[in-house]
Predict the structure.
Amino acid sequence: MTVLPTGEQFTLRCAGAEATVVEVGGGLRSYQAAGRALVDGYAEHEMADVVRGHVLVPWPNRLADGCYTWDGQEHRTPLTEPEQANAIHGLVRFSAWQVVDRSSDAITLEHLLHPQPGYPFALRLQVAYELSTEGLRVTTTAVNEGAVALPYGEGHHPYLAAGPGLLVDDCVLDAPGRTRLETDRRGIPTGSVPVAGTPYDLRGGRAVGDLVIDHAFTDLERDADGLAWVRFTGPDGRGAALWLDAAYSHLQLFTGDVVPEPRRRQGLAVEPMTCPPNAFATGESVIRLEPGESTTATWGLTPLG
């Protein structure tokens, strides 16, 4: 029997919408609703490239030199972005996840991250996907199964689809960040600046055009329910909205300029993150989970137009 690069695949259906999640990495491979693809995913027999749909745990984004100190102990993780001497997007992207609950429109996947060099902690993870008439809801829960406190951060890496025959250049982007993190050539934050008066002020919406974005944003504007919203629409007004709850303090946006052709700038990565890049090194917004403690964060996608 041929083994797919993604392992087993699980399709959820509800009211004409369909989403597929995968065993390898526990991520989102595809999502169609309202007659169109909402995410720029990948084919059934492909491996997820450029982090498409991945779950980013126990840290999202980059960790400079793969090095951090926790409770007085220095740890070094493998450099998974060796050309920049970074460890990137955590440790579970190509790990197998197990199904612990499943129905026609919902599934919960689980993975136990065992102690290992660079992250000597036991972390149980669950990602629950639920498809409804309102859209796709994704809830991530982490539990410290070990005997000592551990550092934790989390993110997800969906690409919103520009649409058939379109590039992100052709779309309008409305995003909630008041502050943008500036970075060095390695993608490590060096400071923060207000977006007001700059091309990166995406509040209220603007045409992407030739704007290059690969930045984390924070100080997110939120609605009365505490949700921050990103809206990404094509010339016909159709598109997708991604919302994130208060557990996500940061949002990375990436216009895909280093994605290999022919898919360059065909999707916009919208990445909810509970902490900024390099958080394990700086300590900023890192969640401390004591033994037995848990934490949960939720984001979702809904069609527009």
